[in-house]
UniProtKB/TrEMBL annotation:
It catalyses: (sulfur carrier)-H + L-cysteine = (sulfur carrier)-SH + L-alanine. Its EC number is 2.8.1.7. It holds the Pfam family Aminotran_5. It comes from Ardenticatena maritima. Its cofactor is pyridoxal 5'-phosphate. Signal peptide: none annotated. The gene is iscS. It is an enzyme of class 2 (transferase). This is cysteine desulfurase. Belongs to the class-V pyridoxal-phosphate-dependent aminotransferase family. NifS/IscS subfamily. Keywords: 2Fe-2S, Iron, Iron-sulfur, Metal-binding, Pyridoxal phosphate, Transferase. Residues 35-396 form the Aminotransferase class V domain. InterPro entries: Aminotrans_V_dom (IPR000192), Aminotrans_V_PyrdxlP_BS (IPR020578), Cysteine_dSase (IPR016454), PyrdxlP-dep_Trfase (IPR015424), PyrdxlP-dep_Trfase_major (IPR015421), PyrdxlP-dep_Trfase_small (IPR015422).
Length: 415
């Protein structure tokens, strides 16, 4: 076992004023690293994003809805961020509303279409591997508001087939919601093809693009998307700010009523600093995106290759190629997921598992269950997600540390 002192470097990283983007500038030995490989959960604020936000956390505190100059400056900052988002989505700024998070965007998208079209039909199509932000929303519509939900089948990699969407469509179908990329297994869905089918059949199409936001093309015309949800903290903006895109003339009503902010799409005084940060972050994320993705993919493939080579009874989950560039996910047999995460934390690797923890009880991952994993397998998931702020050296460290921790835990279990 290496001489890693779990406290020291983590504290150093926490106190570093410039955030994880400066990990590689620190003179710490390989053994003392703390490597953050949980970018699907959240990301560090990019230094340039923080710099853009700072005025709106200090002197520029005006309410963007006030008429005086403080208000006008805040409003101008929001409109600039809206243009930055619209440029990446290739849409009109008026089709963008800033929200409080990805969950809120999914809620507003789905419920807004359902309520607008409830007299036309009450059938919604989605997948069993969506995030709970989508699953719980359609479940509530089903249990309390008389809607009917069809869950599409997914293959062993978690992919939906366009033919299955076509088969599931009915005259009373009002909405199809399929995520762009999965948070637990990284699989990317054929969104553009599903969107094209929905358009042909006159059905509204929503995609939860929260995990895709920083990595995949977001052109809503090319993707044939009518509504899209994004979340800032997944691509180096702060927590507490999201995006809802709603295509013009989509039958949709706002479920957040009040003062009519955000063109009436989402009432409530805006999180100005967060919005400014999101605008800067989306621009940064989509500049040289493919080159950054190629680097992430190379590091990810090294990590995956190393783990599969060194450890028996480990399986990669999700699609082997059609997956998010920095995303690696596994089922690790005969290892308790919590022990593995704690063991990795002690060895200086921040990872996550696919199992959701609710009310203290670990439940098997609904995503892994949907792709055919046994209950045991669905409770032994490991997710390692890389970001632009990871260095090759950090990934090399993790590629050595992860197999070591798994082997040690298995050895303990046997003795
Ligand atoms: N959708 C997906 C696919 C996610 O991965 C997440 C968060 O992990 C969300 C929605 C919710 O986003 P937020 O944390 O901004 O509410």
């Amino acid at each position: 076992m290496g001489g890693y002192n779990p406290g020291s470097h983590a504290i150093q990283a926490h106190n570093a004023p410039t955030g994880a983007f400066f990990f590689d500038e620190r003179s710490v030995s390989m053994e003392k690293r703390y490597v953050y490989l949980d970018h699907s959960a959240t990301t560090a604020i990019h230094p340039d994003v923080l710099e853009a936000m700072m005025p709106y956390l200090t002197d520029e505190y005006g309410n963007p809805n006030s008429l005086h100059r403080y208000g006008q400056r805040a409003q101008r900052a929001i409109e600039k961020a809206r243009r930055q988002v619209a440029a990446v989505l290739n849409c009109s700024p008026r089709e963008i509303a800033f929200t409080g998070c990805g969950t809120e965007s999914d809620n507003l998208a789905i419920r807004g279409v359902a309520f607008a079209l409830r007299d036309k039909g009450r059938h919604i199509i989605t997948t069993p591997i969506e995030h709970k932000a989508v699953l719980q929303t359609v479940k509530q519509l089903e249990e309390h508001f008389g809607f009917e939900v069809t869950y599409l089948p997914v293959d062993e990699y978690g992919r939906v087939s366009v033919d299955d969407v076509a088969r599931a469509l009915r005259p009373d179908t009002i909405l199809v919601s399929v995520m762009y990329a999965n948070n637990e297994i990284g699989t990317i869905q054929p969104i553009a093809d599903i969107g094209a089918l929905c358009r042909e059949r006159g059905v509204v199409f929503h995609t939860d693009a929260v995990q895709a936001g920083g990595y995949l093309p977001l052109d809503v015309d090319a993707l044939n998307v009518d509504l899209m949800a994004l979340s800032g903290h997944k691509f180096h903006a702060p927590k507490g700010v999201g995006v809802l895109y709603v295509r013009r003339r989509t039958p949709w009503i706002s479920m957040m009523t009040g003062g009519g902010q955000e063109h009436g799409m989402r009432s409530g005084t805006q999180n100005v600093a967060g919005i400014v940060g999101l605008g800067a972050a989306i621009e940064i994320a989509h500049t040289d995106r493919e080159a950054k993705n190629a680097r992430l993919r190379a590091m990810r493939d090294h990590l995956v290759g190393s783990i599969l080579e060194q450890v028996d009874d480990v399986q990669l989950t999700g699609h082997p190629t059609e997956r998010l560039p920095g995303h690696a996910s596994f089922v690790v047999s005969n290892v308790d997921a919590d022990s593995l995460l704690l063991g990795l934390d002690l060895e200086g690797v921040a990872a996550s598992s696919g199992s959701a923890c609710s009310s203290g009880a670990i439940t098997p991952s609904h995503v892994l269950s949907a792709i055919g994993a046994t209950k045991r397998e669905a409770m032994s998931a490991l997710r390692l997600t890389l970001g632009d702020d990871n260095t090759e050296e950090e990934v090399a460290y993790a590629a050595e540390a992860v197999p070591r921790v798994i082997q040690r835990l298995r050895q303990y279990a046997r003795t």
